[in-house]
Amino acid sequence: MNKPIRKAIFPVAGLGTRFLPATKAMPKEMLTVVDRPVLQWVVDEAREAGIEHLIFVTGRNKGVIEDHFDMAYELEHTLEARGKHKELAALQRDLPAAGTTSFTRQQAPLGLGHAVWCARDIVGDEPFAVMLPDMLSRGCMKQMMAAYERHGGNIIAVEEVAPDQTHQYGIVAKGKDFGRSFEITNMVEKPKQGTAPSNFIISGRYILQPEVFDILSAKETGAGGEIQLTDAMLKLLAHQKFHGLHYQGRTYDTGSKIGFLTANVAYALERAELAEDFRKELKTLLG
Fold this sequence. Notes:
The chain is α/β, with parallel strands linked by helices. It has a single domain, classed as Alpha-Beta Complex (Spore Coat Polysaccharide Biosynthesis Protein SpsA, Chain A). 35% of the residues lie in helices and 23% in strands. The chain has 11 helices and 13 strands. The protein has helices at residues 38-48, 63-68, 73-81, 85-94, 112-117, 120-123, 140-151, 212-216, 229-237, 257-269, 272-286, and strands at residues 7-11, 32-33, 36-37, 53-58, 101-105, 128-131, 135-136, 154-160, 170-177, 181-189, 200-208, 242-246, 252-253. Strands 8-11-9-10-12 form a 5-stranded mixed beta barrel. A two-stranded antiparallel ribbon has the order 2-3. A two-stranded antiparallel sheet has the order 7-13.
């Protein structure tokens, strides 16, 4: 039997420079898509998939993230006193149970691999998930859990992009096909144009075995002079199986301005109380 996936790492130490000045004092992960922080949407995805322990790898000026996942006594008291029971219930529903969140600090921006390594002692000797908070892909981790039950080992969510975009992403090579999943035979981080082994990109969701921490401990740098998670996974591939899951759904890259704006539009149009009026406003703007 496969060991269950109980813990997920959320690397939230990034500076968010593409969204300055909005992120000068506000972590980019706390920017809102409709009325929920981006990070809250990703945590919702994790909890839906059965994740029990949320591990946040933070950096300087990220204290508001800890506050968001903690009780707010004054706010809750005020809502109760004013009879705003619906809003109070929503806050309490999103609040993680005591002892189910952990925070650790990535003290320097040394790459995604380093951020994952920073959580090694909290994860321990068990498989775990990694969920990049920039990427909104509702239901993806639940699909990955199903793939993990089928294949075990390591699972990476992938999506297809146009061949002329492959140099912007981590890319996997495709082996034996199992329908929505397939064996991964190779990986490369941001290959030069025309050299990618496929057009399947690594899209920000992983299930990994704990042996990857041993590889990351060497702190070898790769593309951009950073400790790359893709490089560590490639070394682990020599000893363990990796499978790609072709996620059914759409991912919104909220780390880009277009992706962030598109996510807001898409998520607003799914809200029954907003969709009709919002659609009218969009039609007015578009002429």
